Amino acid sequence: SRATDVAAVQVRCNSAHETIRQLRALLRSLRAFVAFEDEIERRIGALLAELDDDCGLSSLGFDSAVDYAVEHLGMSATAARMRLQTERSLRQLPVVREAYESGALGQRAAFLSHKSLQAPSEDLQRAYVARAQSVTVRRLQDESRMLQREQLLNTTATYCDTMRDLRRGRRPENCSQRQHLPSDDDWRASM
Question: Exposure of 135 by Cβ count < 10 A (0-12 exposed, 13-18 middle, 19+ buried)?
Fold first, then answer.
């Protein structure tokens, strides 16, 4: 009857609310563990960079900290290289480094920053951090690739313009005045 139906709906609602509460608790735990894992990865990257910079790993039979991480820590070469490159690149990017160390920026987004930012100002770094926090890592990676292609195209276009100017016998706009070497006869006469 009607009272039984209402009681059944209430039981289902209570059960659904409890399930949602449990799910939220699980998600909070998962986020906490991921934050802890990120902290560990940051510290591993810093230690690998310190090992690679300061220690004589060659005296222990290793070419680099990456080789050590692969052979003795069981890390993949890719993961070790990424952590090491992230640590090194962030030395030039203090704003991005601060966001990474505080946990506001993940390891992959921090790694991509050095590919996306060429000699950036602090304002540009802040804009990158804000962008990285507002999009997925996949989107950030796509944008980084796009910027790299644009830089390559600009470099190629500059090279092509220079070669065209040289073929036409003009001094390229992006070249400074050249110093001509003395002829062989002038060189011999100077000796």
Answer: middle
> Vertex 182, ends 178 and 183: CA angle to 5°?
125
Q: What is the pLDDT of residue 95?
A: 93
Give every residue of the chain whose pLDDT is below 70, as ranges: 1, 3, 5-11, 13, 119, 152-191
| Angle in degrees, CA 131, 48, 40, rounded to 5 | 60
Cα–Cα distance for residue pair 128/91, rounded to 1 Å = 16
Which residue has 């600009």 as its token pair?
Answer: 154
CA 114 to chain centre: 5
* Cα 134 from chain centre: 16
Q: Name the burial class of residue 184, with classes exposed (0-12), middle (13-18) and buried (19+) by CB atoms within 10 angstroms of its CB.
A: exposed
**CA–centroid distance for 16 within its chain:** 41
pLDDT of 137 reads 87
**d(Cα 62, Cα 187) in Å, to the nearest integer?**
50
Distance CA 10, CA 21 (A): 16
**Residue that the structure tokens 């993940």 belong to:** 106
Does residue 80 contact residue 48 with C-beta atoms inside 8 Å? yes
From residue 90, give the alpha-carbon distance in Å to each of 53, 116, 134: 15, 12, 20
- Quote the pLDDT of residue 180: 44
